Amino acid sequence: MKGSEGRKEGKMSNRKPTIGIIMGDPAGIGPEITIKSILAPEIYSLCHPVVIGDARIVRAALAAERKDLPIHVLKGMTRTQKDSASLQVLDTKNVEPGKVVIGQASAIGGKAVFEDLQLAIRLAQRKEIDGVVAGPHNKYSVNQAGISFAGYPPLIAQLTQSAHAFNMLVAGSFRIVGVTLHLPLKEVSGMITFDLVLATIEAVQAALGRLRIPKPRIAVTGLNPHCGEEELFGTEEESVLRPAISAARGRGMDVSGPFPADSLFAGIAEKQDYDAYVAMYHDQSHIAIKTVAFERIVGLIIGTPLVVATVGHGTAFEIAGKGIANPGPMTEAIKLVAQSSSL
């Protein structure tokens, strides 16, 4: 089977997309990695970045990086502010910097994350921006603000009135998505249904199309050890997974599986035989990609009409404010959204 590493992806449009970037929790590393990423030389060659958040937090992050780049505060989104001589900010005025303790969860930070993302999604729905990049959040902070919050995918699904939103982890040519995400393991089997597995495969197919991958190939893992081994260790492979894969093939998708998850990813660091992988639950997908690419993972939220990505890590409160956070995943998230938005 030939690897997909050398397969050519389509070229991006000449029109640079406008990408809205929310910083995430202001007490974490989000503001730092946002500023570091936007200052990367390659970003302005790919897109027009606009920070959606409190301008005071942006100024503090710039000062911490000892950068004197002027801030251009936007009163609304227009497509005329397209230069790199200033940092463009759509000021949400929702964080009082003096009330934020760096490195600590708080209702103030959680509320800002929720409000900034809501605004970014509305702007994307109105096509005032072409895509959204979301900085790291802290679920406890958002819930402290009295907001029921289980992460970006379910919130984005709710805001876009989508049936599902899935988190595709991306590191270069390695792409993997879980059918389920933040669930206790004892509940996973009950959630693995024909409709949900097929919906996941269809979302992956659509996302690979946005990434201009011609004739994408998708692999699906099993749920049980050895794919159930003739139903000795479980029946989901025969009752759910094979029918869903067959249905996807019937709709013209190149889908293979189910494969035993303990052997499917052998040698994955050297090559990928598929353009994307569908796993059944959180650790099955996250362990595979984090083992080989922990420092550069991006989460692409798929299954909705919008292009949204986030970093594959948390707020890292323990290093917030120290100036040592790695902006790599944030930079890659911006690049990925720019690529997916440039139609």
Compact summary:
This protein has 343 residues and is of the alpha/beta class. 36% of the residues lie in helices and 17% in strands. It folds into two domains: 11-162 and 304-343, 3-Layer(aba) Sandwich (Isopropylmalate Dehydrogenase), CATH 3.40.718; 167-300, 3-Layer(aba) Sandwich (Isopropylmalate Dehydrogenase).
What's the alpha carbon Rg, rounded to whole Å? 20 Å
Q: Number of DSSP strands? A: 12
Q: Give the averaged pLDDT, no decimals.
A: 91
* CATH domain fold name of the largest domain: Isopropylmalate Dehydrogenase
Total helical elements: 12
How many individual domains?
2
Class derived from helix and strand content: alpha/beta
Q: Give the CATH level 1 class of the largest domain.
A: Alpha Beta
- Please give the oligomerization state of what you see: single chain
Low-confidence stretches: 1-12
The termini sit apart by: 30 Å
Helix share bin: 25-40%
Biggest sheet descriptor: 12 strands, mixed
